[in-house]
Every structure is written in C-alpha cells, then in structure tokens.
Amino acid sequence: MSVIRTAILGYGRSGSTLHAGPIEKNKSFHVTAVCDVDATARQKAVARFGCRPYDDYRRMLKEEPLDLVVIVTRSDQHCQMTCDCLAGGVNVLVTKPWAVNAGEAQRMVSTAKSSGKLLLPWLPARWGSDLQRLRQLVVEEQAIGTVFLVRRVEGSFATRNDWQTERRYGGGYLLNWGPHIVDPPIQLLGSPVKSVYGRLKQTINPGDVEDLFMGILTLANGILVQVEYTVSTESPPTWFLQGTRGTIVVHGTQLKMNARTPAQPSDPTQYSTMQAVPDKMLEEKLAGSLYGDEHQIYKEIAAALCGETRYPVTPASALELSRVLDAIRTSSNENRVVMM
Ligand SMILES: NC(=O)c1ccc[n+]([C@@H]2O[C@H](COP(=O)([O-])OP(=O)(O)OC[C@H]3O[C@@H](n4cnc5c(N)ncnc54)[C@H](O)[C@@H]3O)[C@@H](O)[C@H]2O)c1
C-alpha cells in the first residue's frame, strides 16, 4: 500500500482535530473523502484536504476506493458504521468507546473476522506517559514490591450539555471516560477481571445518564482496583498504587514514589509499631501526554495497515474492556457483584 486512502467519518470536535491533525501530518495517509451529515463540517474538510464530501457513508463506501475509514461519530453509531465498513471491504479505526456494550463489540469483532479486514480500536491512554512510567516502576523494577491495591480516578466540576448527556446517543461518563480510566490499570496489572462492583450516579449534568461512576474490580491475581470518574472542585490523585514495599501517587503529570522495606521484628513477643526502613524516594514530572502522542499512534496505524507491525490494541482486549464496563453498569443497576 503506497498511500493509505483514508476517509474521516464524523468531522466534528474529535474527528477534525485529534484525528485529522495527525493524518494530515503523516505522508502515509491521503484523505480522499469525508462524511458528515453537517454541511459546514463537510465544507471545512473539503477546504482543508480537497477531499470528496459525502453526507451518507453507505454511498461513500459504494463510490470511493478506500483503505481506511476513521470513525469519529457519536458513540451509538460506531457499531453499525464499523460493521458496514468492514463488510464493504475497508479497514476501520474506531474511536472510543468503540461500542456501547459488549454485544455490539462482539458483533464488530465477528464482522472483522469474516471480512478479513483490520479493526483498530482507538484507546490512546494505552500510550499515556503515566501508564508507560508505571509499567517501568511497578512491573519491570518491582519498585513497590507486590501491588495489592490500585486506584485510578479522574474528575472535574465541569458540566456538558451535548449528546454525551443522553443515553440514546451512547452518552454517559462510563462510556466516555471508562476507556481512559478502567482500561489502563487492567493493562498495567496484566490479569483478567474476575468480579465487579459498580455504582453510577447523575449529579450535576443535565440529561438522563450518569456523570459519575465508581467500580471496584478484583483481578484474577487478587489485586483490587478502584476506578472512578468523580464530580469535584478538588482533584484527587489520578493514580494511587499500594504495594508491599511502598506507594506511588500520581497527580496528572506529577509522580511521587515512596519505597520502603517493612521492618521485621526480631523479637516475636515485641508488640510495637515497627517503622519501615526508607528505601527510595522519587519525585518526577512525567514526560509526554497522558493520552499518548496521536502522531505516534498514527505511525503505528500506518505500519499495521502496511503489514509491517501488529497494531498494539487488539480487538480482543477492547472487547474485554467492554465486558468490564457492562459489568460496572449491571452491578449498579442490579445492586450486586457481577462475576466475570
Ligand atoms: N480522547 C479521545 O479519544 C476522544 C476525545 C473526544 C471524543 N472522542 C469520541 O469521539 C466521538 C465523537 O465525539 P465528538 O465530541 O467529536 O462529537 P461531535 O458531535 O463533535 O462529532 C460527531 C460528528 O459526527 C457527525 N455525524 C452525526 N451523524 C452522522 C452520520 N450519520 N454520518 C456522518 N456523520 C455524522 C456530526 O455531524 C458531527 O460532526 C465520540 O464517540 C467520543 O467519545 C474521543
């Protein structure tokens, strides 16, 4: 494939920036078409790329020879559009949340298999500087010993008033933020989720969906993971990791580690609090974006489409994430722990 003939389907806030930006800069891609139901969006894309505009993606699939469709429409539209593009013989990159539930996700995975085309889920937090650094410290260096509890939290006090506040459009903070919050600790700890307790709440946003969620996940290896999107004027740590030899706390791009060796009492009858021996203190600023470098991600997308490397986000792992997000919702709706 000398050049990747690309269509952007959904040229809105994210399509016109987060995706069009790196595609425009990368010589491997050529934007030959854009599809949006909004005439102004189409005009902007044509002015920028000189591409052919469509208001109907099915017609675009019939008329355009394409190698890749980048789907950045509303979340409720992703599954059908993805399946139609794959069945039409085109590779698909689909933004997060790639599906509104695991049933949809499974349908997309099956359609990709039968079509023989590539299905590339967009999960940029997997390239995040926080996850990369934590992987080095926690997994490679075992710097805080055996991890037993990880908290991953985001929050704000901002409200929104768009389709993201409506269930029928696939809105709600579990789908919108879950891929950024729930997925990274699972990737970091590398163990399947075995049970899920979840709570959803609507607090300050309009609409009919949650703007706050919490989940407590127990992994197969016994590690507890607390995930949360919260509504707050103050910022809790974005990561809080506890291990048998210390603690790591992350506030955005600020990471602090306090590693200690627990004291071992030599006299078993001694009944006093033993102070741990300080081991290593670390304070650093994380280099790079918390949601990865979209230019780097698009380089990897191009390499995967050209058959040079495998795209690191497998559909199977994105399907697993959809199952966990479903379980948080089911747990909240049915007030029970969901076994996976
Ligand atoms: N960090 C991230 O990865 C990130 C950031 C923002 C948004 N997103 C995701 O991107 C998706 C879009 O979000 P957004 O904020 O850009 O929304 P948006 O509403 O700004 O854009 C959606 C676009 O799709 C168009 N559209 C609607 N129906 C269509 C149809 N039938 N055919 C063609 N075009 C159609 C709309 O006109 C609009 O231009 C969401 O799923 C969201 O979760 C991801």
The CATH homologous superfamily name of the largest domain equals: Dihydrodipicolinate Reductase, domain 2
The value of Rg in angstroms is 22 Å
State the helix count. Answer: 10
Mean pLDDT: 96
CATH class of the largest domain: Alpha Beta
Please tell me the CATH architecture of the largest domain by its name: 2-Layer Sandwich
Structural class category: alpha/beta
What characterizes the major β-sheet? 9 strands, mixed
Bound molecules: nicotinamide-adenine-dinucleotide
Topology-level CATH name of the largest domain: Dihydrodipicolinate Reductase, domain 2
End-to-end Cα distance, whole Å, is 41 Å
Secondary-structure element string? EHEHEHEHEHEHEHHEEEEEEEHHE
Count the strands? 15
Helix content: 25-40%
Oligomer classification = single chain
Strand order of the largest sheet: 14-13-12-11-7-10-9-8-15
Segments where pLDDT lies below 50 for 5+ residues? none
Number of domains: 2
What can you see in these coordinates?
The chain is an alpha/beta fold. It folds into two domains: 119 residues, Rossmann fold (3-Layer(aba) Sandwich), CATH 3.40.50; 184 residues, Dihydrodipicolinate Reductase, domain 2 (2-Layer Sandwich), CATH 3.30.360. It contains ten helices and 15 strands. The chain has a nine-stranded mixed β-sheet. Helix 5 runs antiparallel to helix 10. The longest helix is centred in the last third of the chain and has 20 residues. The protein is globular and about 80 Å long. It starts with a strand and ends with a strand. 42% of the residues are buried. It binds nicotinamide-adenine-dinucleotide. Nicotinamide-adenine-dinucleotide binds next to helix 1.
